[in-house]
Amino acid sequence: MKKLFANLLTVLLILLTINASAQKAPVGKVWTTAKANAWYAQHKWMSGADFIPSSAINQLEMWQADTFDPATIDRELGYAQGIGFNTMRVFLYSLAWKQDKTGFKKRVDQYLAIANKHGIKTMFVFFDDCWNADAKTGKQPAPKIGVHNSGWLQDPGNRLNNTGETAMLQAYVTDVLTTFKHDKRVLLWDLYNEPGNSNKKEASLTLLKKVFAWARAVNPEQPISAGLWDWNFEKLNTYQALNSDVITYHDYTDEASHLKTIQLLKSHGRPMICTEYMARTRGSKFANIMPMLKKENVGALNWGFVMGKTNTIYAWDNPIPDGSEPKEWFHDIFRKDGTPYRPEEVELIKKLNGK
Known about the structure:
The chain is an alpha/beta fold. The chain has twelve helices and eight strands.
């Protein structure tokens, strides 16, 4: 309880800082709250998941030509359509673009065509500070047995703040945004997943600012955002909140704690989408969180969809060396054949989605 109170106090202090500095903030082309709320009102309540096909261990394996798997994507997005999901959050990857710019964009377009066929809009993510820092193109490693997200890749990872990489990263973001800036199949651009993670902290602020500037220069029709996730990162949180058209955030806590986060973030007056939640062994479950998110009119995207090479049925900090199935899955909803892990969860999701 003391830790929860301290976290909430930190959030409140951040919000006070934001409000106090709002007059000095570089508003530029940040959407007005009226525009953001009008955009949100045009859409049904957003529900879905963070998606990678079960055949891919990481973003490179998803997007490289040799391992791009439209058949699995089609089948698994069919599972999503069947339970009423209408939104998926999908991670792109800069080295896949660098390796094959034209082919990469064609595969993104092919993914979007499949998703659109299933009535699903997509939120794309550019950069990411989570998990492995040293990515290499080509054949990707096999999953480590029983280890959560053993092959997931940071982007740019070890190339963060390498001045020799800046021009390439800018070209990547600019090219993809320019290509799809008017595409109605794209819901939102999530510019940077969990900046400051992997102990990078404020070292990620420089790239965070740059990617927002690059995105504003393209000026896509879709909103841009970067999700708040760690209330200790005051400078990062302030910049993200002031420069996002729509407030996105992550919360893996139980209902009472998560609701406090929502209540505090609502002070911005902007639409809100929770782009990561649902870690069963930590008290964040469909049964207690998803109905609350719908009641609060907050978009609900859980981490994990079909059990596969990412191994996200295993918890972050609790590997199972023999690879046996955990008694309680950490993330994910379906087995590869489309069988639900817990049928009662799927029934609840369908009910909330009007299916």
